[in-house]
Design goal:
Elements: H1 2-16, E1 19-24, H2 44-50, E2 63-70, E3 75-87, E4 93-100, E5 118-124, E6 133-138, H3 143-153, E7 160-165, E8 169-174
Parallel strand pairs: 2-6
Antiparallel strand pairs: 1-5, 1-7, 2-3, 3-4, 5-6, 7-8
Length: 175
């Protein structure tokens, strides 16, 4: 049954999403390591593409709410993305994005049981006055679900994340 559900989910996301982020959830993403600010760290370029308001030079600390739908479990939460200035070595600084208000352990993305699970994030462009939305599928270590996802986005290896954008193509990042 879940194999059929993920097939339908993937088809819908391929039709509607503007960009995707595919990774394995680390102990830092979930609450497995007891992190002070748990939650997946959405790559800056993807977050700023999804929420261009974060790059507004006229606001010192812009914040944007968006709906996070964990479709694999039916959970929804309103999260907050903000732009912060990070000080780098040599006195330099750069803008970074931070997402908070994940909802604690009740959010499957933070559930320590999902550490190591493959996760696909599909970012939908805003339409009209609606809130931006991100849809997520957590494969929950089920090989049958990963067998649906990997032929599309490639192998999902620990420590490697894949960013796909209709605007910028495919990027692979190692962390």
């Amino acid at each position: 049954m879940r194999s059929q559900e993920i097939h339908e989910w993937v088809e819908e996301q391929l039709t509607h999403a503007a960009s995707w982020w595919v990774k394995r959830l680390s102990g830092r993403d979930t609450l497995a390591m007891g992190a002070r600010n748990p939650g997946p760290r959405i790559p800056r370029e993807l977050l700023f593409e999804f929420l261009p308001e974060l790059g507004n030079p006229h606001e010192s600390k812009p914040k944007v709410k968006f709906l996070l739908n964990v479709d694999s479990s039916g959970d929804r939460v309103l999260v907050t993305a903000s732009s912060i200035t990070v000080r780098l070595a040599r006195g330099e600084s750069r803008k970074a994005g931070l997402v908070t208000d994940w909802g604690g352990v009740s959010n499957p993305l933070l559930d320590p049981e999902n550490t190591g699970a493959a996760a696909v994030f599909a970012f939908h462009a805003r339409s009209g006055d609606t809130l931006p939305e991100c849809h997520v599928w957590i494969c929950a270590n089920l090989a049958e679900e990963e067998d649906v996802v990997e032929p599309i986005w490639g192998p999902i290896l620990p420590g490697v994340e894949v960013l796909i954008s209709k605007a910028n193509g495919v990027q692979e990042k190692r962390y």
